[in-house]
Protein 1
Amino acid sequence: TQLLEQSPQFLSIQEGENLTVYCNSSSVFSSLQWYRQEPGEGPVLLVTVVTGGEVKKLKRLTFQFGDARKDSSLHITAAQPGDTGLYLCAGTNTGNQFYFGTGTSLTVIP
Amino acid sequence: DTAVSQTPKYLVTQMGNDKSIKCEQNLGHDTMYWYKQDSKKFLKIMFSYNNKELIINETVPNRFSPKSPDKAHLNLHINSLELGDSAVYFCASSPIAVTNTEAFFGQGTRLTVV
């Protein structure tokens, strides 16, 4: 089993603040994904990063894949209450295997 | 149209019982999965099926058995349920791709064993 550790595990911030979530592993992955899960629902894909050092932006969310393809970060600018949810990173390799991180529960207070 | 649907959404049962959770996907994907999400929200792979062949079984007790009657269905049977089996179980599917593949999840089944 390939373990991905996320930090922090819990994060509670005020609306308008910035935050960064980290996803770290000792394993190399061919791609890394970020999902968001809302209560009572399954995770939904936000982004996939493939190339070491790659940066992708999705509105106020910025995703980065580490140069060695072992780690990733998610940065949210000016957080909104609608950003509240569980954020999960997932490493993938050939063969369609998805290994999920330990999760970061984000609460944005209005 | 629901892409990945699983039933039931909630399941409360007594210890020792046998239960099943059904999953269907209408996306034409080749691979289906079962994940268990515990109280700490950790999403752990249990099984994956590719074209009706099991390709992963991550140290799951043999009381759990996946059954795939066809490519669009992957059901989960659980025998002799234990208190520790209480969790949310997610079914997912994905297409086969070298890169940029994506897992599509159902809404989950919250299993409570009493």
Protein 2
Amino acid sequence: SQQGEEDPQALSIQEGENATMNCSYKTSINNLQWYRQNSGRGLVHLILIRSNEREKHSGRLRVTLDTSKKSSSLLITASRAADTASYFCATDLTGGGNKLTFGTGTQLKVEL
Amino acid sequence: GAVVSQHPSRVICKSGTSVKIECRSLDFQATTMFWYRQFPKQSLMLMATSNEGSKATYEQGVEKDKFLINHASLTLSTLTVTSAHPEDSSFYICSALLPGSSDTQYFGPGTRLTVL
């Protein structure tokens, strides 16, 4: 079964607005990671948040983790057209040997 | 930063032939690499874990004789798709685990395989 479910599946916003993506998972994790993928390209690592952390920032990115609800969110503030991409959460499961299970992804489109 | 390359970036082959894809960690040594496949507009699915000096560990449903993985050195893992068929057409992406990096995986740019 799918470990990570993301919503929304697609998100279209105007440049300058904030974008929020959510990820839910089912089992215990070591950490949760967010990646960006431009069309037809590889993945770019954005941020890693450990199971004992609740919030993490990196530039315009803010990630939260709620292990009681088994959910995480990625907030991109002041979005730019260059942020247009697919965003995936990936969970590193407890005892999983660093294997990542990817969510379904959110396609973000930032319009000028 | 940690860089992972893949070669080739794109390959087209005839049905029944074998195709080898290379994954290299350029500026670090990786004892563990991972192979994923991604169908259009879908998420990444882990195929196997490649460990240097030992046999790869395959995920359930992935045929090990179909997808041969060799991790011959600390900077190179190869995936060979044997007797490729059109349904093997996909985007194959590798990643390498950076030691001491708090479990961060660095991904290659991917290889687009098209089997005619």
